[in-house]
Design brief:
Helix content is 41%, strand content 14%. It has 347 residues and is an alpha/beta fold. It folds into 2 domains: 19-132 and 253-347, Pantoate--beta-alanine Ligase, Chain: A,domain 2; 148-238, Ribonucleotide Reductase Protein R1, domain 1. The strands form 3 sheets. Strands 1-6-7-8 form a 4-stranded antiparallel β-sheet. A two-stranded parallel sheet has the order 2-3. A two-stranded parallel ribbon has the order 4-5.
Length: 347
């Protein structure tokens, strides 16, 4: 009896239990197939999204590269245009450079953009480096102070906007001289090799003329704030150059540099000088024109510090399109209509 009952549970081919088991297996297989289908679909979607993102990234990179090259070419065109304007001005063989000339009109220079390019814009600016204080003129060929240049630099650093006391000014001037002169002898309150090599991150004193204005950041006493300035006031780098024989173009110098030319020059006199040279009807072809300025003190004598012509210029050409930009900076030397590029950077 028991054996006959148990024999009913043996799943034979024609047993009623066989259908139930087969149905369960089929249901399990359908479930597995559904799960596999979902997993494969999810994998395909994930791979597709990842591929799409990668392609979009590559596309954006390609577009940025294309636009970057385009903007660099635009900026180079602006730079070359400024070179041509300076060369044309130099070819005139006149001994006068002023802020009333075409090369000094940034708005007019930049307007060339609309006639050259359908898209994007150019901003071109030319700065006369001859209107700045020329640091390498501080020391003569034998490594000695040029006393007039020393006095000029001292007056400049003593201006209120730089917030330096007399001791700090003297230390910085001597340190710049020691950085430039060829020997290792400390000048008064300056600094030579022994000081720089004793720092936590030691380096040598150059003992050669400056090749870049940023070298000043290595000179003892010159901080980044003093060099670059702040939002409230510009730093010393805005008024200094490494090029030139020390003669400052009185026609292009900033009010800050003009004020540094003599201890007898005050703000009012400087304002009158700027107004005088801004009037085309006035004659400022000779460096002594300052003597004819209204309110000028008879104690002001700067003939040996100034000129009215320049040979060194800085060109900045920036191309913009949308949120992208490329900027080319260069410093050049002009000799008549001949141009020599001294430095050239792309940012």
């Amino acid at each position: 009896m028991i054996l006959s009952l148990l024999s009913g549970f043996t799943p034979g081919l024609h047993s009623p239990w066989a259908g139930v088991l087969m149905l369960g297996l089929l249901k399990d297989k359908k479930g597995i197939a559904l799960i596999l289908t979902v997993l494969i679909t999810s994998l395909i979607v994930a791979l597709t999204l990842q591929f799409n993102e990668a392609m979009r990234s590559e596309l954006y990179a390609a577009v940025n590269l294309r636009d970057g090259v385009k903007l660099e070419c635009m900026a180079r065109s602006g730079f070359d245009y400024a070179l041509a304007v300076l060369a044309q001005d130099g070819a005139s063989k006149k001994s006068l450079d002023s802020l009333l000339e075409p090369w000094a009109d940034s708005k007019a220079l930049s307007s060339i953009s609309s006639s050259l390019f359908k898209e994007g814009s150019l901003e071109i600016a030319v700065t006369d480096l001859g209107g700045m204080i020329q640091l390498n003129a501080l020391v003569d060929k034998k490594g000695r102070y040029n006393q007039k240049q020393k006095a000029l630099l001292t007056r400049f650093l003593s201006l209120e906007q730089f917030s330096l006391n007399s001791e700090q000014v003297e230390n910085i001037v001597d340190a710049i001289k020691d950085w430039i002169d060829p020997d290792n002898e400390v000048t008064h309150f300056g600094a030579e090799r022994a000081y720089y090599e004793s720092l936590d991150r030691p380096y040598s004193c150059k003992n050669e003329p400056l090749e870049s204005l940023k070298e000043l950041l290595l000179v003892r006493g010159i901080t980044k704030e003093l060099f670059y300035g702040t939002k409230e006031k510009p730093g010393i780098s805005h008024y200094l150059s490494i090029y030139g024989d020390g003669k400052i173009n009185i026609n292009t110098a900033s009010p800050v540099v003009l004020r540094s030319l003599s201890e007898h020059l005050d703000y009012k006199m400087v304002e009158e000088m700027v107004a005088y040279r801004s009037n085309e009807e006035n004659d400022f072809s000779q460096p002594t024109w300052y003597k004819h300025v209204s309110g000028m003190s008879s104690e002001v004598s700067i003939d040996d510090l100034v000129s009215t012509s320049s040979r060194y210029f800085r060109i900045v050409s920036e191309a913009r399109q949308g949120s992208m930009s490329r900027e080319i900076k260069g410093e050049i030397k002009r000799n008549g209509d001949s141009i020599e590029v001294l430095s050239y950077t792309v940012e």
